[in-house]
Amino acid sequence: MTTSKTPANVTEAIRKLDASDQVAIQTYIAKLKTTIQDLETEILQLKDGDPHAHYHGHEKCTSDHSHGHDHDVSNSADGCTLDHDHDH
Predict the structure, then answer these.
(1) Is the pTM of this model over 0.85?
(2) H/E element holding 12?
(3) What is the pLDDT of residue 78?
(4) Helix axes 8-15, 19-48, angle to 10 degrees
C-alpha cells in the first residue's frame, strides 16, 4: 500500500504557515492518505473476489480477528463502525 511521506518541498511550505494553518493542512493530508489506503485495499478486495479477505499492506489475510468486545451491530448497515487494530 502507498504510505509515502509528504514531499520535502510541501513540508517546508507547511512550516512557513502559522500553527493553525499547519494543523489544518496536515490534518487534510492525513485524511487523504487514509482515503488512498482505504481505496487501495478496496481495489485489492475487488480484484481478489474473496469477500472475507482483508489486507495488511499487500498481504492477504482471511483470519478472523474477533473484536473482543460486545456491541450490537444488527442495526448497522456496515456492521461494527469502531476502529479496531488488526495486529496478529
Answers:
(1) no
(2) helix 8-15
(3) 46
(4) 150
User: Looking at beta carbons, which pairs linking 24-29 to residues 24 or more positions away fall under 8 Å?
Assistant: none
The grid coordinates of residue 59 equal 498481504
Residue 46 Cα distances to 7, 32, 40, 57, 77, angstroms? 30, 21, 10, 15, 20
DSSP 29-60: HHHHHHHHHHHHHHHHHHHH--TT-EEETTEE
Beta bridge partners of 59: 56
DSSP state of 74: T
Buried b (16+ CB within 10 A) or exposed e, 23-55: eeeeeeeeeebeeeeeebbeebbeeeeeeeeeb
Q: pLDDT confidence of 68, banded at 50, 70, 90?
A: low
